[in-house]
Amino acid sequence: MKNLAAIILAAGKGTRMKSRTPKVLHPVSGLPMLAYPVRILKDLKAQKVVVVIGHGAEAVRSAFDGAGVGFVLQEEQLGTGHAVMCALKGLKGFKGEVLILSGDVPLITTETVKGLLTIHKGRGGKKPVLSLITMLLDDPKGYGRVVRDEHGSVVRVVEEKDCSVPQKGINEVNSGLYLVEAWFLRENIKKLGNGNAQGEYYLPDLIELAVQSGQKVKALTHMHPNEVMGINNRVELARANRLMRLRKAEELMLSGVTVLDPETAYIDSTVKVGMDTTIYPGVHMTGETVIGENCVIEENSRVSGSVIGDNTTIKSHTIVEDSSIGKEVVVGPFARLRPGNSISDNVRIGNFVEVKKTSIGKGSKANHLSYIGDSVIGARVNIGAGTITCNYDGFTKHSTVIEDGAFIGSDTQLVAPVTIGKGAYVGSGTTVTRDVPAGSLIITRAGEKVIEGWAVRKRKKK
Fold first, then answer.
1. How far is residue 275's CA from residue 258's CA, in Å, rounded to a whole number?
2. Which residues are the active-site residues?
């Protein structure tokens, strides 16, 4: 929007979080909470976005480098009004409407902000200079109370520490989200005083200044207060995470995904899931994960930063990290794919198999109890139970290459660097220390010796 700029307040220390991490960098559903208002402003195509930083300024700046926002430093945290005074340095020459959001209100939606924009524009009559979002709470403790006149118009907001006894009984509270005309903001922000219980410059005092000067103020009362709640401690952080998870699960279900138990599905807001996929209880899906159509992700599995093709099943208690998996693959149960894997279509990776930094060709199998690391495995390869690619010599990692159609017998050790040629066989119990030519058999078994009667004699001695 050409006539829309925004200020995001993100300078607070967040003392009640009891953390060395800046409050706005604490994650909600896989993203720092500050990312959510930034996303909304991107959706709205705001002309300019200024983030006010203070506590942990460099960490916040670094986390949002390249996000298309500007930063203004509030060296002393002297209240929300002072933060906006600082932010206006980054909006020089802007004419239009200034949206003021909080970096610790991640559940806010684009639809709600659009609602605020709509009531601010209004139809007919005098346009307001300031609009805000309020909410009704059964327990308003900790919030500024919204005071209305006999006509129901908002005339001021009083912070809790400054409330009279009757004002403390008001259950309509200020959410801290505003839309203000730029000219009014510039003319009045410096009129704010700090003669209050906290000695701070309160941004809501602009409301009273507007009313006293004969200007109009409007309020959008939000019917779902959870959406505009701020996060001030770990309890509220957990609540926000739960609400965001449920929102994500609902979004997926409405798009054609089956989530068997939304309460126990931990799916980040960044995850994409295709139609007709089924997600079991206890699943964790994080990061930029993309799941195809008609997949099954069974209980207690974790998929992080990975791409999974259509018709693939991730069986229970399986971990997949930063890997690419093709179509019609079965992984698990109790398998682990560490980062850097590329798994082709129709592959089978079974129980207690660990794979790391390996490519596996179409139709290959490793069904039981194996470790495969730093390897290139061709198509239609069979890897028997107990196979180990010995990729580390104590100093350097080495690669194992297994070409198309090779058969690796059970209980084998492939000491890298080594290549098993196309169609070659490795006999069970073999330790391979040199390359095996295509179509060959390699076997390293000691000769068998049977001593008849040995067990009987042994028992008699006891």
1. 8
2. 368
CATH code where residue 287 lies: 2.160.10.10
Rounded to two decimals, the pTM is: 0.90
In 3D space, the residue among 360, 293, 313, 254 whose CA is nearest the CA of residue 303 turns out to be 313
Are residue 300 and residue 419 in the same domain, yes or no?
A: yes
pLDDT digits (tens, 9 = 90+) for 259-301: 999 999 999 999 999 999 999 999 999 999 999 999 999 999 9
Three-class secondary structure of residue 312 per DSSP: coil
Last residue of a domain, one of 197, 228, 259: 228
24 part of a folded domain:
yes
> CATH number for the domain including 175?
3.90.550.10
Phi, psi of 252, rounded to the nearest 5 degrees: -65, -45
User: pLDDT tens across 2-29, in order?
Assistant: 899 999 999 988 899 999 999 999 999 9
Show the tokens assigned to 422: 């196309």
* Torsion of the alpha carbons at 234, 239, 241 and 247, rounded to the nearest 10: -170
End-to-end CA distance of the chain: 92
220 and 336 share a domain? no
Q: Pick the closest to residue 293 from 270, 267, 312, 280 (CA basis).
A: 312
For 409, the domain range is 243-442
Are 125 and 272 within one domain? no
Cβ-based burial of 301 (10 A; exposed 0-12, middle 13-18, buried ≥19):
buried
Angle at 225 between CA 210 and CA 223, to 5 degrees: 80
